[in-house]
Amino acid sequence: MPTSCTPAVERIARVLAGRHLSLNGGGSDPHAAGAVDAAWRDHVDDAYAILSTLREPDAQMAQAGDVTVWRSMIGAVLDRRPGA
Question: What is the pTM of this model?
Answer without folding.
Answer: 0.89
